[in-house]
Write a structure and sequence with these properties.
Helix content is 60%, strand content 3%. By secondary structure, the protein is an all-alpha fold. The N terminus is likely disordered.
């Protein structure tokens, strides 16, 4: 097992996903998809992806509440709750300028947690292109 990722098995032998696995497999793709949908003004998709991001962060807090003596669950709550709420409000309003600003604050929240965990080399940024070539992020035409 990769100790960096924090993988472990519960006493029952049940797999518990590591912190790195949760971040790369659940959190990071949602972060990217929110941006791609919002830039296309596909607000229903952006809202859906934000809900999925919040669920992914809840899973991180549930499965990896502490990592290397850091209170991950507490950090996520204190750093991300207001930021994701502001992003949700911008998406609900369909306001591109507010969306860009709020997304930037969510992104900075990710990076501030990484720095606090002595993992400042894990830098999250606004996506420059889509890593999802098989998904159309533009609004559905009716």
């Amino acid at each position: 097992h990769d100790s960096e990722a924090g993988e472990k098995e519960a006493s029952s032998g049940t797999y518990v996903p590591g912190l790195g696995d949760l971040m790369i497999g659940r959190v990071q793709p949602r972060h990217t998809k929110i941006w791609l949908a919002g830039k296309e003004k596909n607000w229903p998709l952006a809202a859906y992806e934000l809900d999925e991001l919040k669920e992914a962060l809840e899973d991180v807090a549930r499965y990896q509440p502490h990592w290397n003596d850091l209170p991950i669950a507490d950090m996520l709550n204190s750093v991300m709750a207001d930021r994701t709420k502001a992003l949700n409000n911008a998406i609900d309003a369909g306001d591109e300028a507010r969306f860009v600003a709020a997304y930037g604050k969510v992104t900075e929240g990710c990076n501030s947690c990484h720095r606090a965990a002595d993992r400042g080399y894990l830098v999250i940024q606004v996506p420059g292109h889509s890593p999802f070539p098989d998904q159309d992020f533009s609004p559905v035409k009716k």
